[in-house]
Amino acid sequence: MLKDLRIAVIGPGAMGEAIIGGLLRQELVAPEQILACDPYESRLREVQARHAVHTSQDNLAAAQWGQIVIFAVKPQQLKQVLQPLRGKLRPDALVISIVAGATIQTFTEALEHPVVVRSMPNTPAMIGEGMTVWTAHTEVDERQRAWARTVLSALGHQIFVDNETYLDMSTALNGSGPAYFFLMMEAMVDAGVHMGLARRVAEELVIQTMLGSARYAQQSGKHPAELRNAVTSPGGTTSAALSELERGAIRTVLADAIWAAYRRSMELGKS
Ligand SMILES: NC(=O)C1=CN([C@@H]2O[C@H](COP(=O)(O)OP(=O)(O)OC[C@H]3O[C@@H](n4cnc5c(N)ncnc54)[C@H](O)[C@@H]3O)[C@@H](O)[C@H]2O)C=CC1
Ligand SMILES: O=C(O)[C@@H]1CCC=N1
Questions:
Q1: What is the residue with the minimal CA distance to atom 4 of ligand 1?
Q2: Which residues contact 269 (CB under 8 A, 6 or more apart)?
Q3: Is residue 22 one of the residues assigned to a domain?
Q4: Does 113 share its domain with 12?
Q5: Which residue from 176, 182, 183, 264 has its CB within 8 A of the most atoms of ligand 2, so it is best to mutate?
Q6: Ligand 1 centroid – CA 14 distance (Å)
Q7: Mean pLDDT, to the nearest integer, of 98-113?
Q8: Is 47 a domain residue?
Q9: What does each C-alpha distance from 238 to 128, 132, 143, 229 come to in angstroms?
Q10: How many whole angstroms from its chain centre is CA 75?
Q11: Which atom of ligand 2 is nearest to the CA of 175?
Q12: What spacing in Å lies between the alpha carbon of 176 and ligand 2's midpoint?
């Protein structure tokens, strides 16, 4: 599918490297089909050492080389990255953005190029366990959509949505989501240590509990409330804990946090 295609990654930081790593791990492309482009030589050396891909500090040359051009720079860097590339991409090049908040219109206008896919992955992509949501401009044809699906599948699960407004919601749920779980993980491990467990043991207990609960919810297909009720014995330990969580308004705090991320994604899109 991606054989013989040239893929430029503009901004091979944490996420850009996850894409490179995924594509190579799954043998979807060979290292010489990838060009990583970053202003920092030290960063390029790291990426080159790990993946043996081509590297460059010249965004324009990279963007013109790529049949697929992936933008993985920070939102705050995007304007200055796009400006010199205006009207310079190959007419049939597929642009894939993972930049939080940045709209398809930002790309089509800045680049004068309509063939744009907007996506939102997350960091479990580093181990091929990501969750990516993506959408495409109407000018992206079926063959290019298939390329996008294949590239994003290299990160883990992917789903296509036909409405771009879902991308800001996805940024708040699956994009930022790992941070919410990591914070909870950290707090639970610290509580375990506070009670007297060795940190190593507390970590194993918490991580496997989180993993097992996620897999159980996925495989059973049951509503989370039903699964939670099955853990909660009358007058038992879980109800004592849940009562504290509800007193701390955990549902409202989580919902407010997710709404804050959603609003911030929309704000980033306007800046
Ligand atoms: N970290 C995360 O959990 C997620 C991040 N994203 C999005 O992915 C994008 C990248 O995020 P990270 O990988 O976390 O950031 P990062 O800071 O690790 O990577 C950004 C890379 O861009 C490079 N860069 C800076 N200026 C550049 C320029 N002018 N031209 C080319 N490259 C340049 C940096 O040197 C760095 O290697 C962001 O837009 C973010 O919104 C999307 C989903 C999840
Ligand atoms: O925090 C951020 O803005 C990026 C987007 C989703 C995850 N990290």
A1: 122
A2: 101, 102, 103, 106, 168
A3: yes
A4: yes
A5: 176
A6: 7
A7: 98
A8: yes
A9: 33, 33, 51, 9
A10: 14
A11: 6
A12: 5
pLDDT at 12: 98
Q: Is the CB of 75 under 6 A from ligand 1?
A: yes
- Residues 6+ away with beta carbon under 8 Å from 169: 262
Asked whether the whole model's pTM tops 0.95, one would answer yes
Instruction: Give domain status of residue 126, yes or no.
Output: yes
> Are the beta carbons of 196 and 144 closer than 8 angstroms?
no
DSSP 88: T
Whether the CB-CB separation of 119 and 103 falls below 8 Å is answered with: no
For the chain, how many structural domains are there in total? 2
* 189-243 pLDDT, tens digit each: 999 999 999 999 999 999 999 999 999 999 999 999 999 999 999 999 999 999 9
Q: Which ligand sits closest to the CA of 42?
A: 1
Task: Give the whole-angstrom CA distance, residue 4 versus residue 7.
Answer: 10
- Res 1: pLDDT: 79
Residues 8-42: pLDDT tens digits? 999 999 999 999 999 999 999 999 999 999 999 99
Mean per-residue pLDDT over the chain, rounded: 97
